[in-house]
UniProtKB/TrEMBL annotation, chain A:
Non-catalytic component of the RNA exosome complex which has 3'->5' exoribonuclease activity and participates in a multitude of cellular RNA processing and degradation events. CDD domains: RNase_PH_RRP41 (cd11370). Residues 21-151, 154-218 form the Exoribonuclease phosphorolytic domain. The gene is 100641638. This is Putative exosome complex component RRP41. Component of the RNA exosome complex. One of its GO terms (biological process) is U4 snRNA 3'-end processing. It is found in: Cytoplasm; Nucleus, Nucleolus. Pfam families: RNase_PH (PF01138), RNase_PH_C (PF03725).
From TrEMBL, chain B:
The gene is 100639813. Residues 334-344 have a biased composition (Acidic residues). It comes from the Eukaryota. PANTHER family: EXOSOME COMPLEX COMPONENT RRP45, EXOSOME COMPLEX EXONUCLEASE RIBOSOMAL RNA PROCESSING PROTEIN. This is Exosome complex component RRP45. Residues 345-354 have a biased composition (Basic and acidic residues). It comes from Amphimedon queenslandica. Residues 35-166, 192-258 form the Exoribonuclease phosphorolytic domain. GO terms for molecular function: mRNA 3'-UTR AU-rich region binding. One of its GO terms (cellular component) is cytoplasmic exosome (RNase complex).
UniProtKB/TrEMBL annotation, chain C:
The keyword Kinase does not apply. GO terms for molecular function: RNA binding. PROSITE patterns: S1 (PS50126). Belongs to the RRP4 family. It is found in: Nucleus. Its main location: nucleus. One of its GO terms (cellular component) is cytoplasmic exosome (RNase complex). One of its GO terms (biological process) is U4 snRNA 3'-end processing. Keywords: Exosome, Nucleus, RNA-binding, rRNA processing. It comes from Amphimedon queenslandica. Residues 64-142 form the S1 motif domain. This is S1 motif domain-containing protein.
Amino acid sequence: MADFEYLSPEGLRSDGRRPQELRVLSCNISHCLQADGSAYLQQGNTRVIATVYGPHDVSRRSEAQHDKAFINCQFSMATFSTSERKKRPTGDKSCLETSLALKKTFEAAILTDTYPHSKIDIFVQILQSDGSDKAVSINAITMALIDAGIPMKDYVCATSVTLINDTPIVDLNYFEERGPGPELIVGTLPKSGKIVFLQVNSRLHIDNMEKVLKEGMNGNQRVHTILDTLIKKHLEKSILT
Amino acid sequence: MNRSRASAISNCEKEFTLEAIQERKRLDGRSVYDYRQVFIKPSPVTHGNVLVTIGETRVQACVGCEVVVPRPQRPTDGLLYFNVLPSPMAAPNYDIGKSSLTMRVERLLDRCFKESRSLDTESLCIIAGQKVWSIRVDIHILNDSGNITDCCVMASFCALKHCRRPYVTVSGEHATIHPVSEREPVPLNIHHTPICITFGFLSEGNYLLVDPSIEEEKVLTGHLYIVMNIHREICTMQLEGVALQHEEVVKCTKIAMTKVNELNKSINKYMGIRTNAKNMDEDGQSILTNVLKETTLQIDNIQTAANVQEDRKNGKDIIQEVQEDVYEIMYPMEEEPPVTEEEEPPKTKPRDKDTDEEEEVTVTLTKDDITGLTSIETGLTSNTGEQTSVNRNSNKETSGTRGRKRRKRK
Amino acid sequence: MALKGEPHYVAPGDVITANLGFMRGHGTYESDGKLLASVAGVVERVNRLLCVHPLKSKYNGEIGDVVVGRIIEVQQKRWKVETSSRLDSVLNLSSINLPGGVLRRRSAEDEVMIRDYLKEGDLISAEVQQVNSDGSLSLHTRSLKYGKLTEGTLVTVSPSLVKRCKNHFHNLLCGASLILGNNGYIWISPIILDDHQQEQMRFQLPSTPGSSSVKTVTHVATIEERETIARLRNCILALAQSRILLYDTTVQYAYDASLKYEVKE
């Protein structure tokens, strides 16, 4: 992999995209009839399924909060999602960490004070992993929450960014994610531009921080435009007659 | 009763803390960006055993190494594990076993040291595909008085820095691990110093503070953890539970940078590492390892004391000066006697008989820890007012005696 | 602002209006002096009140709503009822009609026998008596039309599909009766008998407490009735699928339209 070319001299990436270009994003809303809200989201070859149950009564007394809803989030990766079969789809430490981070993110985005004493369950699973798993999960959960009619401040859109030869590259695939550059995953509320999810892995120099962050946020704006169009279409299609 | 209830905060306390911070005042007299006093005590007896305190928060990290078979996917990489152990006596709401806290901290440590390649795992390889060193860092949380994350990261780093693994010679397929008495053990290869700075956010991100104390943590809405090294690189970063504008994030990284420099200085001071300006500018290879390798470098008490003097002159007052008596306890590591040797400076072992019983875990019975114990029992007493060094001392004094009494009763 | 007749679609974070003369209703929130949507749906305006109703959501109870629910827990003096609301609803022992007439006093024995009236898994129809401060619903069945449901079939649809009407109990011409619960639970049963017989049927309790109880006169539905019920069920599901509001007329029309199709295995 040493001589793998992440950015060709023409400025194209390994899969032919331009540095700031997103992969094709498609989404199937309300695919799961049992759940209160669900979404299947595909970004390039990364496929994610998200379901939302609730708000419903808490299952344990200790979960009840008098002033806001309790959010439960479970992130998992299907055993067949990666090139090597995973042995433990849920128990893995980094999965638990992601669950916790997603929970905190959506706690900041959902208007939890509308639902005291209740619980909202969010389940998200990576069906096929090709980079940007966390970012795609966030986008999928957003769609599922909107489908469930749970009040949120705004969409939560996320993308991952890296830096190759001082060029920020948006929406990473597997090879770019494993590449030598740092990885920054940023989730924003696109209308207000507020950051609700931020994770940096590997070393990112402080002087590049602003550049990479900006590019990630621009990516989020584009994700938002796509998601918004999808939601509006879905609304028009399924409005009461 | 339910233990988690005990950690809840009443409405008036909450409002008080909030209002104080809105006036940019903090309960312990610090200003918003101030860090509490940091104190690092490497064990004079065992390598890789370090106690780190930030204010009253107390964490002890111990490093252990063993030879194992590497993972088949990465035959030349050594292993590095972090194991965070919250002691139930550290805070009323701690449970034994894995919780979201330990999981979060462990993953943060993974990202700090492994994913940002701070510890060179490839140098831990003995024979590719057959034998590698597995380094395990046990992080005991002894007292949680806020900002446990920073303390854990600092303790892990210092412990890894302080750790020595046995010397190994390889001839063909045969590796010999030399006992400590035979060959001088070698330090681990550390590339850079990841230092974590925790930012707390209040009321939807309108107010920000550095190094939150336990009272402040109860009213915080969100956290931002920034781990940086002195080369101005962000090793890892994590935002939790709050919505921020991107300018605020950038501002935080800048504040973090200055804090990292300050903390790095105090780590060097306590760990007995002398840095000079020339080395500071070097990129890539860590200056610290270089300095450590110079085994001829002898720093004695007088010299380090001179460093302290220098810092004073420079006006670095955020990390408070070490008190003279504390400093005597310090034992520069270059002069450390080998593990087998029993001789120790007298001040460090008022209770070493007790500690011998439980090997590495010098946790339970040292004088400092009893302070921790009693301060939980006595609730807020030790946290009121300004935390001057005098105050601290007297506190230690009283609670120490209290602790002794308790033990007698037992 | 939404033009009359043309639906105004919004998604979370969209600005509905910057004019603060409006009151904020469900599905909206205020930020920086603007009224924003918090759910995806169509803006609805009633005088100065602005709301956004999402396509799907949990049932939001209002006083006077007719609901169909399932008993999930029996407690000392009350039942917990599942009504697809966001919190479990409550039916107090004091809010039901006890056998032996409206004027009968409640006694300690009633508390002992609470399980004989309604037990876990029973379906009931009830009315929302009160919305509690935490958002949970208190129900009552103090009318002869409410109470335990025995013979029939339950269809579950999204609560937003059920139109709020004056009457939610319908005896359809096709020979079945329909309870359109506001919470999206729809009960289809053979034609409900007249009031007198009903009273006899409901909560028939043993004269001496403690002995085994026979609760209802068992009425065995004929094969024709069953066919009608099954057809109605499918009609309702078809309507729900194509997102058409459910009320007696639509259901009746759907039924009529379905008659040209034969019953098949």
